[in-house]
Every structure is written in structure tokens, then in C-alpha cells.
């Protein structure tokens, strides 16, 4: 039995790569990288990260969560409806193509597909297609618990991804202030792919695809369906630095997921409590998105221009500037003993002693520190700094 179960899982994974949503996700990840690089080159004449970073991190950051969720969903028997999976996939496609990933949280795609199924059942409850019947969707029974539980767990995964996989991938941008100067803001726009195995009851799929992974439990049969779950995230940090707001936002999303999960379990006693759990998740996640956006738009900039030095907007990974532990928002006052006020003066001062670079830097709190770094041949042309200019 266990050998057959693992064979079914492996077959389901192979089938996953045939899903058109999977290939669309790959194309969108490449497009995100291209758009980011284009924006960075426009402001700084150089890109911070390679254009394929979003593509490479698409699954690298989320595979562990996908594995754990697959084991949980299958292990505790969270059986979903085939029609809901279709609607869920359709909603994710719309979100992907919209590129508005501030609304890419799984709570939105899950809730939209669930309540879309509710509306569909109310309007045309007799619909059926190749063995699947709309009337079979138990929206006031099992699904009223299963869907909120899945939503809660995916929200927890989203929060963890925000905490651990966004800060290092923010993209600095230059924006005009009210005084006509330019300051830095920081944008992160990511999608993550979570290939999750879900259970669908009956032999509807196997009846049309004989080799589809399937197993029986008692008198009931179930099919493994690999679902490419997409989590989208977009946030602009202007008033605060990304490492200040993103961990807090991630923690709030995790807490929201736990609340949805706990309330959703109430669907065991009253189905409408499960429905309410989804609505609570949508409302709280929306409040988080809007409140953070409004807070970042009000007030000043975390990295404004400075008349006393050159403001760091970003640091290239692996560069001499990273070895100097320079951070966005810090201000370089002097290089090799020479006061600097703009980018040209900065690089002119570096070339005074191309083999050794001594900086006088004010950190985000205004405290001045000295640092130095040996620069090897040609490094002074590639210090690795993106500057507010």
C-alpha cells in the first residue's frame, strides 16, 4: 500500500508539469525580472540583481513549504472538489496576468474561487461535466471546513515567505520629492510557486486518464491532483526601510493565517463559520495591505537626498560595498579624507588611492563611523553602490 502511495505521488508530480498554469508562472517570473532590471537601469544605469533572479527564486524559496503543505493536506485527508480546483486555477491565472500582486495573497484567490462556486451552485445547480456535478460540491459540509483550513495554512506560508524571502530582493527606485529633488524608495514584487498535492474524491479523473495517480480508502477512491499554487506579493517601502516593515508585515500575515485556521475549524459545528473564516481573512489581509500602503505614502522618505554627502540607495551583492557593510539609507560624507557631495566627487575621491578605500559614513541614526576596504584592480569602477542622485 505504501509503495503504491508513493508511486501515485511521483506520478502526480510528473503530471504537474503538464499544467498550463505552471508554464504561465514561469513566463511571468521571467517578465518580472525583465521589468525590474529595466527600472533599475533607468534610474542607476545598472541592475541590482540578475534578470533571472525572480525565475530562479520562484521555487527555491518555497519548495519546503510546498512539501510540508502537501504532506499535511494529504496526511490529514483534506479532500477538495475538482470544480473548486478549476475555479481556483482560473482566478490565479487572472491574478498572474494582472501583475497587481498586492492582491496576490492566497486568501483572495481561495475566497474568490470558493464563493464563485457558491454563486454558481445557486444560479445553475444542475450543471455537470464529464462525471463532475455542481450539486456534488458540498459547500455546506466538508468544503466549509477544508477550504478555510487550506486558506489559513497558505496564509501562514505567505507570511513566512514575506519574512524570509523579500528583504534581500527589494529593488531601489528614485522618486521626485515635493521639492523637486530625488529620494529613494524600495519596491519588492515577487511571486512564489508552491506545487501542492491535493486530494479529489471519486474516480472522475482516472476514468478519462487511466494512468492518473489514484488510491482507495475503504469503499471510496481518491485522486492526487498537483496544483501549482501561486502566491503574489508587492510592497513599496518609502517612509521606512524594507528590513523595518517587511518582517512585521510577514508576522501579521502569519497571525491572520492562524486566525483563519482556528475560525475555519468552527465549520465542523456550523458550516457558515467556515464561510466567515474566509471573509475574516479577506478583510484582515486587505486592511494590512491598505494600512501599510497609506503609512508608507505619508510623511517623508527613509532615504532622502543629503546636502552633506552621498546617500546609498542600494548595494550590489558580492561587491566591495557589500564587504564594507554599507546599507541603504546611509550617507557617505568623505572618501580617502576628501569630502564628497555627489556621485562624481565620490568616484573621483576613490581614484585618489585606487588600492585602498577609506570611507566616513553616517548610519541611519546619524552616527558616524569609519571603514576601509582594499580595492583590487578595476574595483574602483565597480564599487557596487546605487546612489540617490
From TrEMBL:
Pfam families: PDZ_6
Record's keyword terms, sorted: Membrane, Transmembrane, Transmembrane helix
Domain (PDZ): residue spans on this chain: 289-365
Transmembrane segments: 12-37, 58-76, 82-100, 107-123, 143-162, 191-211, 217-237, 249-269, 275-294
Origin superkingdom: Bacteria
Protein name, per record: PDZ domain-containing protein
Organism field: Sporosarcina aquimarina
Amino acid at each position: 500500500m505504501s509503495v503504491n502511495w508513493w508511486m501515485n505521488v511521483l506520478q502526480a508530480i510528473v503530471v504537474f508539469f503538464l499544467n498550463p498554469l505552471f508554464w504561465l508562472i514561469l513566463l511571468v517570473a521571467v517578465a518580472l525580472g525583465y521589468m525590474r532590471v529595466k527600472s533599475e537601469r533607468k534610474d542607476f544605469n545598472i541592475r541590482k540583481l540578475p534578470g533571472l533572479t525572480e525565475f530562479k527564486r520562484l521555487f527555491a524559496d518555497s519548495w519546503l513549504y510546498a512539501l510540508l503543505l502537501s504532506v499535511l493536506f494529504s496526511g490529514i485527508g483534506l479532500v477538495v472538489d475538482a470544480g473548486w480546483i478549476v475555479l481556483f486555477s482560473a482566478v490565479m491565472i487572472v491574478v498572474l496576468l494582472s501583475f497587481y500582486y498586492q492582491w496576490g495573497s492566497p486568501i483572495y484567490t481561495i475566497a474568490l474561487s470558493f464563493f464563485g462556486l457558491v454563486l454558481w451552485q445557486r444560479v445553475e445547480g444542475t450543471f455537470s461535466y464529464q462525471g463532475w456535478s455542481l450539486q456534488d460540491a458540498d459547500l455546506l459540509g466538508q468544503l466549509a471546513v477544508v477550504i478555510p483550513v487550506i486558506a489559513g495554512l497558505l496564509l501562514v506560508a505567505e507570511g513566512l515567505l514575506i519574512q524570509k524571502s523579500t528583504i534581500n530582493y527589494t529593488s531601489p527606485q528614485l522618486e521626485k520629492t515635493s521639492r523637486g529633488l530625488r529620494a529613494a524608495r524600495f519596491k519588492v514584487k515577487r511571486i512564489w510557486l508552491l506545487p501542492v498535492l491535493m486530494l479529489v474524491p471519486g474516480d472522475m479523473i482516472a476514468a478519462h486518464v487511466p494512468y492518473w495517480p489514484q488510491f482507495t480508502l475503504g469503499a471510496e477512491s481518491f485522486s492526487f491532483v498537483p496544483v501549482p499554487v501561486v502566491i503574489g506579493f508587492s510592497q513599496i517601502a518609502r517612509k521606512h526601510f524594507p528590513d523595518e516593515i517587511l518582517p512585521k508585515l510577514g508576522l501579521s500575515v502569519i497571525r491572520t493565517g492562524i486566525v483563519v485556521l482556528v475560525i475555519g475549524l468552527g465549520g465542523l459545528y456550523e458550516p457558515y463559520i467556515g464561510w466567515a473564516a474566509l471573509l475574516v481573512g479577506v478583510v484582515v489581509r486587505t486592511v494590512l495591505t491598505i494600512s501599510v500602503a497609506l503609512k508608507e505614502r505619508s510623511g517623508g522618505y527613509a532615504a532622502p537626498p543629503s546636502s552633506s554627502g552621498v546617500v546609498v540607495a542600494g548595494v550590489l551583492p558580492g561587491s566591495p560595498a557589500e564587504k564594507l557593510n554599507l546599507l541603504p539609507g546611509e550617507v557617505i560624507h568623505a572618501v580617502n579624507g576628501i569630502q564628497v557631495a555627489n556621485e562624481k566627487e565620490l568616484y573621483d575621491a576613490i581614484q585618489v588611492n585606487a588600492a585602498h578605500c577609506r570611507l566616513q559614513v553616517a548610519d541611519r541614526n546619524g552616527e558616524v563611523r569609519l571603514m576601509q576596504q582594499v580595492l583590487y584592480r578595476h574595483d574602483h569602477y565597480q564599487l557596487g553602490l546605487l546612489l540617490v542622485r
